[in-house]
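Let us work through a complete example step by step.
Step 1: write down the sequence.
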Amino acid sequence: MALKYSRQRQVIKDFLMTRKDHPTADTVYMNVRTEYPNISLGTVYRNLSLLADIGEIQRLRFADGVDHFDADTSAHYHFVCTQCGRIIDLKMDSLDHIMDIAGTGFDGEIKGHVTYFHGLCRDCKKMSKAHLQDSVYEFE
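Step 2: predict the structure and record it as tokens.
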């Protein structure tokens, strides 16, 4: 069954394609409604879900419980800053060999994996180092 064209869905997808920060549905809604003031949050949620379900965008699920969306559907990994929550695409070789490792001694069939890396982004790392240096001077 062919999917009927929707201008709202296209605007949502076009907006996502301009972003590298993996926005939430609320962020998509707040930005898309500047062009389409009558669009509802429910419409944005439904279209994001549909686009993710048909593979035109990625839905990213993290520990914060909020879905984030990525227009880049190529196989790639994400880094999540544990301090500011920023989500960053990582440029790296595939880790698909871990499916073979995970499959050793496993009786089922592994068809994929999701791997997120956690730590401090460049900005938070700089702030952390600066804060640490400030603390050292306070004790002198």
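Step 3: interpret the result. DSSP finds five helices and five strands in the chain.
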